[in-house]
Amino acid sequence: MSLETSAFPEPPKYQQVSYLKSALLNKDLPTDSGIEVAFIGRSNAGKSSALNVLTGIKSLARTSNTPGRTQMINFFTLDSERRLVDLPGYGYAKVPPTVKKRWETHVNHYLENRESLKGLVVIVDVRHPLKDLDRQMIQWAASCDLPVHVLLSKRDKLSRQQANKSLKAVCQELEGLLDSGQVTVQLFSAVDRTGVDELISLLNSWFCDCDDCIMDEMGEILTAE
Ligand code: GDP
After folding, report:
1. What are phi and psi of 156, to 5 degrees?
2. Is 189 in the pocket of ligand 1 (CB under 6 A)?
């Protein structure tokens, strides 16, 4: 084993997150430096709950769910160079076409142009995998070489057997992308905390800018030679 060089050798402390700003327009985005990981998913899939459990801060989602902010890109600071990003939920049934168009334009611009965006966490309700918009998001990100981690949320709503069946079906559908390492998938529950450690481990590898790294218990990056 040898130490891998990284500009960000220490994993972030997710509990030290703080709200930075919300951006409705591209000009409002914070400086594009360091590393960002963005969370996205269908409305009601469990994105806010996942962010709350990850950070241990219940008010984080409330901050981003403040009326008017649900259509914005919400930024949270982990440290001076690393951020979590809460993207607006897609698939609202009642959103007027003009609002939908504005959302798409804004989010597409962010996803396509953001240099600091290291990876995308796509939250999918384990009971309803995968909807067309989920598929489109995953396929599109993979086509841009943006790593994707699929969180199959609300795992506690299904029996272990049913949840594993759903996981298997998603893995089969995304087989090619899984094999090439562009996409990873896991089960998750914000209620019983299934998969929290797995999510943190994945995020640590992105935030330490070291895809093939294994962390030791001190947070140091180790990698097999
Ligand atoms: P968002 O719209 O994607 O941010 O979804 P929320 O995080 O607000 O969750 C939508 C609903 O699903 C809320 O009622 C949550 O309490 C519920 N929910 C979210 N995650 C879980 C979970 O892991 N298990 C269960 N049982 N319910 C969840």
Report:
1. -65, -15
2. yes
Ligand 1 center to 73 CA (angstroms) = 19
pLDDT one-digit tens code per residue, 167-176: 999 999 999 9
3-state secondary structure of 177: helix
- Which domains, from first to last, does the chain contain? 2-223 (3.40.50.300)
How is residue 119 written in tokens? 């990876």
SS3 86: strand
What lies within 8 Å, CB to CB, of 47 at 6+ separation is 39, 40, 41, 86, 89, 123
Give the residue, 101 or 125, on which the prediction is more confident. Answer: 125
| Sign of the torsion angle spanned by Cα atoms 118, 126, 160, 183 | negative
Residue 71 has pLDDT above 70, yes or no: yes
Q: What gap in Å lies between CA 22 and CA 172, rounded to an integer?
A: 37
Distance 49 CA to ligand 1 centre (A): 6
Nearest residue (CA) to ligand 1, atom 21: 154
pTM above 0.85, yes or no: yes
Cβ-contact 64, 86 below 8 angstroms: yes
pLDDT digits (tens, 9 = 90+) for 89-116: 887 656 677 877 877 888 889 999 999 9
> Measured between alpha carbons, how far is 177 from 191 in angstroms, rounded to an integer?
29
**pLDDT 10s digits, 19-31:** 999 998 888 999 9
